Amino acid sequence: MSAKHVTIEVEGKTTKEAIDIALKKLRVTKDKVDIKILSEEHKGLFGMNGHKLAKVKVTLKAEQK
């Protein structure tokens, strides 16, 4: 039987925050997932326009039996 692949995309102020949010949503530890950084955070000049959140894609690894 094939394992169900669960993938979510999450944004955060930093890549670390985005990963932490995804792990909490999936209720797993970092070793149980594959993480792909889709975009890094960018701060706007002097806190003005241009601020972008970090975005990550987190996929549960297939369980090994």
How does this model look, in words?
- The chain has 65 residues and is of the alpha+beta class.
- It has one domain (7-60).
- The chain is 18% helix and 31% strand.
- The chain has one helix and three strands.
- The chain has one helix at 15-26; strands at residues 7-12, 33-39, 54-60.
- It has a three-stranded antiparallel sheet, with helices on one face.
- 9% of the residues are buried.
- The mean pLDDT is 87.
Summarize the structure.
The chain has 65 residues and is an alpha+beta fold. Helix content is 18%, strand content 31%.
Give, in order, the helices and strands: EHEE
* CA-atom Rg in angstroms: 14 Å
Unreliable stretches, pLDDT < 50, 5 or more residues?
none
If strands are numbered along the chain, what order do they take across the biggest sheet? Answer: 1-3-2
Average of the residue pLDDT scores: 87
Secondary structure tally, helices: 1
Q: What structural class results from the helix and strand content?
A: alpha+beta
> CA-to-CA gap between the ends?
11 Å
